Amino acid sequence: IDVVRKLRNKHTRPVKTPIxxxxxxxxxxxxxxxxxxxxxxxxxxxxxxxNIVVCSDVLKFSKLKAVPDWSVLGKRLGKKMGLVAKSIGAxxxxxxxxxxxVGSVExxxxxxxxxxxxxxxxxxxxxxxxxxxxxxxxxxxxxVIADLRVSEAMLDARxxxxxxNRVQKLxxxxxxxxxxxxxxxxxxxxxxxxxxERVIHGNSEAIAEAFGSQLTLGAFEGxxxxxxxxxxxxxxxxxxxxxxxxxxxxxxxxxxx
Length: 257
Hints:
Layout: H1 2-10, E1 21-25, H2 29-36, H3 40-47, E2 52-55, H4 58-61, E3 62-68, H5 70-77, H6 81-89, H7 93-102, E4 104-107, E5 110-113, E6 117-123, E7 134-138, E8 143-147, H8 152-173, E9 182-190, H9 193-202, H10 204-211, E10 216-217, E11 229-237, E12 244-253
Parallel strand pairs: 1-2, 9-10
Antiparallel strand pairs: 1-8, 3-6, 4-5, 7-8, 9-12, 11-12
């Protein structure tokens, strides 16, 4: 989660804008299994990521690099440290994978354990991608690759989530209980009605799940009865540019819990 936040800050990508996909690269299958199972939904929600992929093949997106722990090895090896350090730095990719799996390596007559050296993972970006499209960061052991390409559908999903959040906050502040049946109306006061309709139609399933019914596009035509009808106006970002829409959101309470 912290790595994704670093990438967002680096590319000035606000949290409300979803990231298309992240790939988590780690050689430990059990670590990846935890991400895929218990933690996937949590990570996706915290990072606002649309899809999470895990990969145990560290060489598919990266290369390995070994760095000796000078503070530990220096005390043990003394004058021999320089030669050993040079040999550690010259280890090839297949050798590093074997060292990582076995836990040690023989160098210049010395057994060097993985507790005395770090095997780091460095991202190798495919040539067809620019840094603004595909970037990565990590702690040397876990590598997180983020697909930073933005599509209209992703931004529409962002706007739909904003609508859902605004309605749920209005629902809470109005004292409407979860068990209460409601009907939600959204009228575009300023901005592109066509763009907003695209957002709602493209995310109708998520909206219906959140509200218990589909959102109605257009103005609320009934009487705004006190205690039963609640309204707020909001300005939301929409589309690929810097466009916004001003909406009047209305909740009509249909039944009481």
